[in-house]
Amino acid sequence: MKRSDFHFELPDELIARYPLAEREASRLLRLDGTDGAVSHHSFRELPDLLEPGDLLVFNDTRVIPARVYGQKASGGKVEMLVERVLDPDRALVHLKVSRTPSPGGEITLEGGHRVVVEEHTPEGLFRVHFPDADVMTVLEAVGHMPLPPYIDRPDEMTDEERYQTVFGEKPGAVAAPTAGLHFTDAIMDELAARGIERTFVTLHVGAGTFQPVRSEDIREHHMHQEWLSVEQEAVDAVTRTRQRGGRVVAVGTTAVRALESASQEGGLAPFAGETRIFIYPGYRFRSVDAMVTNFHLPESTLIMLVSAFAGRDSVLDAYQAAIDERYRFFSYGDAMLVFPHPEAVAPEVSA
């Protein structure tokens, strides 16, 4: 399958560069992967579109202020994006510089905080040391919210709250699990009142989520690595849901990747560690019966994942319907509620 099979043309004005005034004011497109049927809703209608006994699986990661600015000893400007905190005083980072620094090179960040480059990794990242203060202390002092590249504006004070989910509590992500941005405490309460349960997994979203697929043959794409945890409590919640005939509804592609990564040995089991799972058409889902997701970039791994779930043609037709109806796209944009094509579900799940 080719990268260009997942292309679509998006008018620039449909890219949501700011969030709406109210989280739950977003629109919601419902897509049935069985026949490609589409219907249009408000996100506030989500409780009506689910059923008592369903289970929502949320990603409870929290975005850290991972983007910092500074300069090299030569005076050259540096933009640093922390990909992962390795230990209290070391991190893996992306560096945007005019010239690649050598090991031992020093960067001075805003506020006078020093960073020493230790090595350039094969993945194109840099391992760096924070000799004066621990990484999170520095980020909390001078870091900026790491808005994605298509939100082509500086971060603002409002982003500190709106680029977080209301339930995010485990710091470590450098990109938001954006399907969760639409949920409010009021909607969570209404879902619970209707008998729709919830559980949480953790996947610390990396900057690689925006990495383009460069190979035309998508099977040659090397997926970025992310850390996740699926605990026994989540496994038990999924098991109970299946036993009572309910549906497991993953909130976001990150929750999908967490559940499916923890299901690679067959049934869902507790798991903590790294994943490079790449889901594209032909994949059979073991742990997910529906998903809430935002609209994704053309030719991205995320639109490939949704296409694996509901069928490429149905997804691209739904995207065109969203464009025609002037939906808002990407991280601060509108959402979809997606149900699978029957062939996307693993036989042991659908049986």
Would you write up a description of this structure?
- This protein folds into 2 domains: 3-63 and 160-339, 3-Layer(aba) Sandwich (QueA-like); 67-144, QueA-like (Thrombin, subunit H, Beta Barrel), CATH 2.40.10.240.
- It is of the alpha/beta class and 351 residues long.
- It has helices at residues 46-49, 135-142, 159-162, 185-193, 232-243, 253-261, 301-310, 312-324, 347-350; strands at 27-32, 37-42, 55-59, 61-63, 67-72, 77-87, 90-96, 106-109, 114-120, 126-129, 170-173, 197-204, 226-230, 248-251, 271-275, 290-294, 335-339.
- The mean pLDDT is 95.
- The chain has 9 helices and 17 strands.
- It has a 9-stranded mixed β-sheet. A 6-stranded antiparallel beta barrel has the order 5-6-7-10-9-8. Strands 4-11 form a two-stranded parallel ribbon.
- β5 (67-72) and β6 form a beta hairpin.
- Monomer.
- Pathway: tRNA modification; tRNA-queuosine biosynthesis.
Task: Based on the model shown, name its key terms.
351 residues, alpha/beta, Thrombin, subunit H, 9-stranded mixed beta sheet, 21% helix, isomerase, QueA_sf, S-adenosylmethionine:tRNA ribosyltransferase-isomerase, S-adenosyl-L-methionine
Helix vs. strand class = alpha/beta
- The N- to C-terminal Cα distance equals 28 Å
C-alpha geometry = globular
What summary fits the major beta sheet?
9 strands, mixed
Mean pLDDT: 95
Radius of gyration: 20 Å
* CATH topology group of the largest domain: QueA-like
Helix content: 10-25%
The CATH superfamily of the largest domain bears the name QueA-like
Which residues form runs of ≥5 with pLDDT under 50?
none
What is the CATH-assigned architecture of the largest domain? Answer: 3-Layer(aba) Sandwich
The top-level CATH class of the largest domain is Alpha Beta
- The total number of structural domains is 2
| Strand arrangement across the biggest beta sheet | 2-1-17-16-14-3-12-13-15
Question: Helix and strand succession?
Answer: EEHEEEEEEEEHHEHEEHEHEEHHEH
Assess the beta-strand content as a share of residues: 25-35%
